[in-house]
Amino acid sequence: MLFSLTPSPEIQHLSLYSSENLNALLFVLPALFAGFKNYLPSPSKEQILCHRPRGLQCISPLVQSVEETPEPIPAKIKGHIPKWINGNLLRNGPGKFEFGNDKFNHWFDGMALLHQFQLAHGTVTYRSRFLQSSSYLRNSQHNRIVASEFGTLAMPDPCKSIFGRFLSRFEPIQPSDNCSVNYVLYKGDYYVSNENIFMHKVDPETLETKEKVDWSKFIAVNGATAHPHYESDGTTYNMGNSYGKHGSSYNIIRVPPQEPGHGDTLEGGRVVCSIPPMDRAKPSYYHSFGMTENYIIFIEQPLKLNLLKIITSKLCGKAIYDGINWEPQHNTYFHVVNKHTGEVLPGHWCSKPFVTFHQINAFEERGCVVLDLCCQDEGTSLALYTLQNLRRSGEGLDQVRSLTLLPQNPGQELLLCSKAGLDGMENVWCTHENLHPEGFEKVGGLEFPQINYSGYNGRRYRYFYGCGFGHLVGDSLIKVDVETKNFKVR
Ligand SMILES: [Fe+2]
Question: Where does Fe cation bind (predicted)?
Answer without folding.
Answer: 227, 287, 358
